[in-house]
Amino acid sequence: MLTLLWFSRDLRLADNPALDAAVRRGPVLPVFIDDTADAANHAPGGASRWWLQGSLESLAADLRARGATLILRRGPAGVVIDALLAESGADAVYWNRRYEPWAIARAEKIKSGLKARGLEARSFNATLLAEPGRLATQKGEPYRVFTPFRRALQALDGLDAAVPTPRNIPGPARMPPSDALAHWNLRPSCPDWAAGLRAQWEPGESSAQARLERFLDGAVSRYATQRNLPGTPGTSQLSPHLHFGEIGPRQVWRAVRARAPAGNGARDATDGAGAAHGSGPDTYLSEIAWREFSYHLLFHFPRLPEAPLRPEFNAFPWDENPGALQAWQRGQTGYPIVDAGMRELWQTGWMHNRVRMIVASFLVKDLLVDWRAGAAWFWDTLVDADLASNSASWQWVAGCGADAAPYFRVFNPALQGAKFDPAGHYVRRWVPELARLPDDVLHAPWEAAAGRLAAAGVTLGTSYPAPMVDHASARQRALQSFEQIRKR
Ligand SMILES: Cc1cc2nc3c(=O)[nH]c(=O)nc-3n(C[C@H](O)[C@H](O)[C@H](O)COP(=O)(O)OP(=O)(O)OC[C@H]3O[C@@H](n4cnc5c(N)ncnc54)[C@H](O)[C@@H]3O)c2cc1C
Question: 15 CA distance to ligand 1 centroid (A)?
Fold first, then answer.
């Protein structure tokens, strides 16, 4: 008996149900398949590919330490699995499920093909607290509103026990050949734009565990009050680790609950805009619930990445404006908090959640650029780019998603900056050409008297852009556009 263990978005050994079941059965052949050449599979962007290499290196080393070898292969997953079964003599395939529409279709096809040939095919849940379909409204419909979804999820608290991490992973007598990871060219070389990513991140399971421990020792207790302050390290930064499955939400949930049992403040921990009403740990678990909600939405509304959930938005008069999109991408809009966020993203592959909301609102409402163009840029540049969370969040900001922010609520980037980055640490870090401006004009340099700008070495339009749009008029234009579709 030999089990082919197909790794995908579960790149860890701890609390990995497919791995646990495979090891209990006997020898294991672990494999990772890169089948993203097929564009329909939402091929990962540059930052995700950078992360994937580190994650696979780490997984291979962890497997090696337990006596197993990770096999790497490229090609359509079904074809690769068939080849490996023939080469190795494996008689079963185990994997942890994914929830992107294409991945569901792929897995169904592979499973039915294996079963038709009398082979064992089993899949497990390593990725979610509650898989899609498990939670439904009283009418048996999918939730479209977050708060009741979260309540239903929290009612399941503590449901699954962790599965053990195997100490030894016996392998097959005959090991099939593997690709060399270096030949997959996942990391950039000419030019090598990843220095900022290397400086900030260490992909892999042990690094994910260490990050969780650091967060639980420190920022979690202040999370409810500090999670909206981008100049403070107040969030867990676990998103890429969660995305690649280097840590699972059940591990996070249990670890948080072990230190802060459920109780006070568990209700209404955050509203959609992130306003906090609960304790740090409860508020944090509520954010984990947003991740679950995103997966729930993607499962029940598989066109979430392409099509607005509110169909009237199909007629929204987006302004196809490549110049505006490019200024936004490069952090050259003239709005300091927006530019700081876009530069943080470019350099580190990550952006603080509050700032993601601000930059997304600016693109969609101030510039009237289609949310899908913003989502595509995030897809390419985020190390945590995730089809469910990215699509659901963009739709939420654009006002066309489930439980979305109302379209008429338009963030004022200068006021958002002053409120959430009052001492200017964030903007000064990412927009150093404004560093010497005093706090009271840092988020709206166009309001500063000429003498104050000169004293800070700032020349608007030269050393830093003048605002590319006037926010008040842009807001009016956005509201008028919204009225057009509302009347239909
Ligand atoms: C326009 C936009 C696009 C986004 N795209 C992504 C994306 O591609 N991938 C992604 O993981 N998150 C995305 N988010 C959600 C959120 O910004 C990030 O999850 C968060 O900033 C990650 O940082 P953290 O790990 O420190 O979060 P923490 O505040 O420490 O939260 C813990 C975890 O909860 C989850 N989480 C937190 N907020 C959200 C949320 N609003 N929606 C879904 N899950 C959440 C994440 O897994 C996160 O790691 C997006 C948000 C916006 C507004």
Answer: 22
- Which atom of ligand 1 is nearest to 238's Cα? 25
pLDDT at site 278? 73
Which is catalytic among the residues 102, 184, 193, 318?
Answer: 318
Predicted local distance difference test score (pLDDT) of residue 190? 87
Between the CA of 466 and the centroid of ligand 1 the distance, in Å, is 30
- Which of 48-52, 58-62, 88-92, 398-402 is the least confident region? 398-402
pLDDT of residue 162: 86
**185 tagged catalytic:** no
- Active-site residue (options: 201, 253, 346, 394): 394
Whether the CA torsion 76, 82, 85, 87 is positive or negative: it is negative
- Ligand 1 centroid to Cα of residue 389, in Å, is 7
Q: Is cis: bond before 27, omega within 30 of 0? A: no
Q: What is the arithmetic mean of pLDDT over 134-163?
A: 89
Q: What is the dihedral of CA 195, 197, 202, 203, to 10 degrees?
A: -120
Q: 3-class SS at 32?
A: strand
Per-residue pLDDT at 261: 80
Is 125 among the catalytic positions?
no
Q: Is the dihedral of CA 262, 264, 266, 271 positive or negative?
A: negative
CB 348 within 8 A of CB 240: no
Distances (CA, A) of 153 to 111, 203, 266, 289, 467: 29, 29, 12, 7, 43
- Does the pLDDT of residue 38 top 80, yes or no? no
184 is catalytic: no
Superfamily of 311-487 according to CATH = DNA Cyclobutane Dipyrimidine Photolyase, subunit A, domain 3 (1.10.579.10)
The DSSP 8-state label assigned to residue 57 in this structure reads: H
The active-site residue out of 102, 131, 184, 353 is: 353
Is pLDDT above 60 for 49? yes
Decide which of 3.40.50.620, 3.40.50.300, 2.60.40.420, 2.40.30.10 is the CATH code for 3-126. 3.40.50.620
Local confidence band at 367 (pLDDT 50, 70, 90 cut-offs): very high
Q: What is the pLDDT of residues 347-357, one digit of tens each?
A: 999 999 999 99
User: Is the CB of 393 within 6 Å of ligand 1?
Assistant: yes
Distance 477 CA to ligand 1 centre (A): 29
**Spatial distance between the Cα atoms of 57 and 79, rounded to a whole number of angstroms:** 24
CA–CA distances in Å: residue 474 to residues 43, 248, 361, 366, 410: 34, 42, 12, 5, 10
Q: Does residue 365 line the site of ligand 1, with CB under 6 A? A: no
The pLDDT score that the predictor gives to residue 277 is 52
